[in-house]
């Protein structure tokens, strides 16, 4: 019994939907009225500008006037698109407008709107389609709302109109063969009509608003080509960033090899030559001393080469995958590294992404060992199954914190490397620690065409 009572207390879904439609009626009617007024202003301004410019296109002054009409159409269109928010329908995404570089010539900047399909679409919508559509929907909406309001209230004010016997009511009375007050019959008819139009008003208002919304979405909203163009720009920027990061890494490796192991190997070569001369001259004690120094130089060169090799993908990465290579990095670190890695990483992460992530994690572990002052690090890697699928890695140390992104150094360089993968790097490092670095990289199953 309790269950049936609870079900009876619930508002039926159709009633809840109907009430929600009624809530949108004021906003929908407001848009239909203001949209009509705006369209009348827009068609007056735009036709004057556009056709004046078109008529003087053979003259230099005609082109700026036509461009001005395109800019004005954009302004009217954006105002119309924002007014559509009153209807409660989904917000229409703004298109991507053309931009020109600061160094472009004045003529290039002037003609940029004329090369954009969005500007012409806005002009067509505001100068032709919207005035026709707004006039039609405004007429229907006002007639429907006026019929509903007038019909529901006719019985209040009909009695005060001049002439008690209304013609329509009298005709209907005679047609039915009854004797009745014409005003009363007419009031009943208008009441029925008012109820019908009032009940259906929410659907009519929503239908008219949806018609505007559909047309505006196609002509004033974002086009699929905008998203494709953005993808191309992002891909191009990512490739440039990847090339720059790779060039920076190669220059850094070349500099480190020159300043480190190469100098030590040159010193080792000179020491061995000195040992050879000392042995030939019979000075064995001096030869032994120089040999010991050469061993120290060789050991130092070996340590530096091992450190530099972290910037080169190890065979383990290609043979056993990313999780094994990162686990080995943790074992080789002087800090205590706890790794929690999703085994699925090896299956979904492309080879180029895996190499970049290996270098990034290696650098983060090296930074933690050198600068954090901590003793342990937690390395996690997981997949986020949203759209697009993303990989997220975090490196958290228990050091003193204070890490910052300084342009041209350390973490900023890693962020530039990740930009080549369209990834992101965020740092949380309050004073006193801990430092948490999060790396997020989108995973693409196939390259862009």
Helix content bin: 55-70%
Note the main sheet: 5 strands, mixed
| Strand portion | 5-15%
* Mean pLDDT across residues: 80
| Helix/strand structural class | alpha+beta
> How are the strands of the biggest sheet laid out side by side?
1-2-3-5-4
> Helix segment count?
15
Q: How many domain regions?
A: 3
SSE pattern: HHHHHHHHHHHHEHHEEHEE
Ranges with pLDDT <50 over ≥5 residues? Answer: 1-8, 445-449
Total beta-strand segments: 5
Radius of gyration: 38 Å
- Structural shape: elongated
Through-space gap between termini: 62 Å
Short description:
This protein is an alpha+beta fold and about 450 residues long. The chain is built from 15 helices and five strands.
Characterization of this structure:
The radius of gyration is 38 Å and the shape is elongated. By secondary structure, the protein is of the alpha+beta class. 68% of the residues lie in helices and 8% in strands. A five-stranded mixed beta sheet has the order 1-2-3-5-4, with helices on one face.
Essential attributes:
disordered C terminus; 15 helices; 5-stranded mixed beta sheet; 449 residues; alpha+beta
Task: Give the arrangement of secondary structure elements.
Elements: H1 2-9, H2 13-55, H3 62-83, H4 106-111, H5 117-157, H6 167-176, H7 182-220, H8 224-259, H9 261-281, H10 284-308, H11 315-320, H12 322-332, E1 336-341, H13 345-348, H14 351-372, E2 376-384, E3 390-397, H15 410-419, E4 424-428, E5 435-442
Parallel strand pairs: 1-2
Antiparallel strand pairs: 2-3, 3-5, 4-5
């Amino acid at each position: 019994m309790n269950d049936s009572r609870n079900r009876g207390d619930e508002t039926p879904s159709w009633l809840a939907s109907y009430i929600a439609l009624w809530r949108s009626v004021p906003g929908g009617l407001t848009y239909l009225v203001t949209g009509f007024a705006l369209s009348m202003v827009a068609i007056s301004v735009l036709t004057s500008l556009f056709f004046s410019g078109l008529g003087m296109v053979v003259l230099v002054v005609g082109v700026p006037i036509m461009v001005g009409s395109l800019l004005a159409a954009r302004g009217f269109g954006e105002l119309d698109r924002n007014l559509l928010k009153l209807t409660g329908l989904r917000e229409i995404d703004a298109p991507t407008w053309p931009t020109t570089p600061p160094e472009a010539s004045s003529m290039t900047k002037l003609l940029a709107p004329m090369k954009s399909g969005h500007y012409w679409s806005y002009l067509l919508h505001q100068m032709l389609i919207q005035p026709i559509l707004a006039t039609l929907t405004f007429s229907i909406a006002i007639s429907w709302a006026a019929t509903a309001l007038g019909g529901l209230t006719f019985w209040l004010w009909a009695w005060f109109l001049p002439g008690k016997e209304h013609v329509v009511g009298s005709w209907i009375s005679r047609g039915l063969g009854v004797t009745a007050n014409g005003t009363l019959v007419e009031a009943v008819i208008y009441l029925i009509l008012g109820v019908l139009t009032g009940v259906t008003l929410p659907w009519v208002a929503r239908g008219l608003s949806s018609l505007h919304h559909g047309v505006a979405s196609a002509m004033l909203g974002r086009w699929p080509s905008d998203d494709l163009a953005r993808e191309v720009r992002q891909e191009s920027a990512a490739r440039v960033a990847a090339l720059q990061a790779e060039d920076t890494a190669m220059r850094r490796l070349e500099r480190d090899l020159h300043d480190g192991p190469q100098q030590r190997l040159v010193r080792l070569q000179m020491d061995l030559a000195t040992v050879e001369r000392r042995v030939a001259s019979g000075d064995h004690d001096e030869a032994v001393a120089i040999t010991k120094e050469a061993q120290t130089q060789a050991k130092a060169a070996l340590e530096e080469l091992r450190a530099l090799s972290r910037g080169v993908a190890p065979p383990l990465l290609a043979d056993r995958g990313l999780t094994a290579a990162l686990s080995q990095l943790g074992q080789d670190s002087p800090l205590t590294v706890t790794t929690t890695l999703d085994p699925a990483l090896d299956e979904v992460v492309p080879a180029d992404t895996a190499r970049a992530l290996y270098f990034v994690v290696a650098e983060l572990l090296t930074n933690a060992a050198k600068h954090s002052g901590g003793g342990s690090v937690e390395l996690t890697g997981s997949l986020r199954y949203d759209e697009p699928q993303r990989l997220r890695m975090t490196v958290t140390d228990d050091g003193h914190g204070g890490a910052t992104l300084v342009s041209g150094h350390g973490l900023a360089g890693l962020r530039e490397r990740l930009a080549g993968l369209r990834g992101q790097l965020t740092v949380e490092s309050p004073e006193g620690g801990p430092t948490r670095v999060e790396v997020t990289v989108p995973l693409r199953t196939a390259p862009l065409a």
